[in-house]
Amino acid sequence: MSQYAQELRATAQAMVAKGKGILAMDESNGTCNRRFQKLGIPATQEYRQAYRELILTTPGLSDYISGPILYDETIRQTTREGVPFLRVIADAGMIPGIKVDTGAQDLAGHPHEKVTEGLDGLRDRLAEYYQMGARFAKWRAVITINTDIPSQACIEANAHGLARYAALCQEGGLVPIVEPEVLIDGDHSLAQCWHVTDATLHEVFHQLHMQNVALDQMILKPSMVIPGLGCNQPASIEAVAEATISCLLKNVPASVAGVAFLSGGQSTSQAAEHLNAMNLIFGEQCPWPVTFSYARAIQQPALDHWGGEPSRVEAAQQRLRQRAQCNSAASRGEYSSEMEKTLAIA
Ligand code: 13P
Question: Which structural domain, as residue segments, surrounds residue 177?
Answer without folding.
Answer: 5-342
